[in-house]
Amino acid sequence: MTIARLDPSDLLAMSQWYDLMATAPDFLAPSRRDHLARFEHPWPGTTEQVLLARDGDQVVGAACCSLPGNGAASTVGLELVVHPQFRRRGIGSGLLAEVRAQHASLIEIQTAHGGAGYQHLVRRGHRPGMTSIRSRCRVAERPELDLTEAWSHARGYSLVQWRDAAPGGVVEDVAALQGRLMLDAPTGDLAVQPTAYDVARIRAQEATEAGRGHRSFSTAARHDATGRIVARTKLAFESDDDAYARQRITIVEPAHRGRRLGLIVKAANHAYARDGEPALRVVEAWNAEDNTPMRAVNAMLGFEPVDRWSVFQF
């Protein structure tokens, strides 16, 4: 086995890396379109470094490190995948050792709860810092939710909807809510450094999404008395299959909670996305296991648990 740094301009190696990810049943592969654009359109403030493990000409393992743009990381996000037919041969351990040799930082990795990666880490004494539940809603099979009762708790609010980039009149509020999410989202026992969000970062994120071919639908709640956006949710189409969308941000400003705004904006956004993308059949969501309020909202919308994913830091 050999381990070497990926050259992003090597399209064959990029394709081999993608094919490897697609073969692993316990790895969340992006769409091929998203994957091939990841170095040309990186996420704001982030760079990626990739190590490929080869057995002859075949790529049998990969480790992708996500680092802040300046390369100085207190936490390195790691995606590590080994071909199912080449596991238990020390490939994952070899890749991890190389990552350790290059980055003396805290490593964060997500793996399927109970899967091969999970068992590997637990056997070495590591424990998950947080576990999330993946759930799915088959929106094409469900009638539109009646929000009459929910709206009775939300008088004085109205909806604002948009596709892709946030309109100029709301983007400052969108940035503030995104920053609030980084403070409020459950993080379990993980060491997390909040990311500062402003309009420039939101616009940079939107540019990355556009460059990677993503499409999104957002619904927000405006507080009519102040004109401010105080709740927002977003669905993103990121895969090669237009039948699937992923639930992204949902956040309600603390002073406006308890008014069913989370349920209202998510239900309205499902309808909005279905109108705009008639092929949509399934929405996938991820929520921290202890985020019981949002999981309760999702259950009302018809989401059903699929599996659990754990995050380790070591």
UniProtKB/TrEMBL annotation:
Keywords: Transferase. The keyword Transferase applies. Coiled coil: none annotated. Residues 1-140 form the N-acetyltransferase domain. InterPro entries: Acyl_CoA_acyltransferase (IPR016181), GNAT_dom (IPR000182). Pfam families: Acetyltransf_7. The keyword Transferase applies. It comes from the Bacteria. GO terms for molecular function: acyltransferase activity, transferring groups other than amino-acyl groups. This is GNAT superfamily N-acetyltransferase. It comes from Paractinoplanes abujensis.
